[in-house]
Design a protein that fits this description.
70% helix; mainly alpha; 5 helices; transmembrane helix; globular; transmembrane; membrane
Length: 123
Amino acid sequence: MFEGLHAVRPWRQSSLYAGYFEALNASIVYLDLAYVFGFLGGTLLALTGATWFVGWMTLLTLPGLIAGSASVYAFQRGIRAVRVRHSALGLACFFALFQPIQSLCSLTGYAQALTRCRTAWKA
């Protein structure tokens, strides 16, 4: 993500949608941090009986996650080549499985970018 933001600045996009999604990418760093350490961490602590961390601040990570997912869904629904399936089970699996794994992988990538570790993309 950082490589993409460095190559193409959000404020230099020619279309409104492209600029919006680039700006959304910049906010994803905060959402990934809040989701992993706030929501997931707070949920795990609550499951172990430590409810002192879970509160309104933990729940405030959800609107950002929902708004980002809803905007991507709305955009993809307008693309003819993309077939959108309306599945409640798929949505539940996305939030329960895919999102935590993706956020953890993203945090690893952010750390690599910030420490300027050498990364290689496989084709």
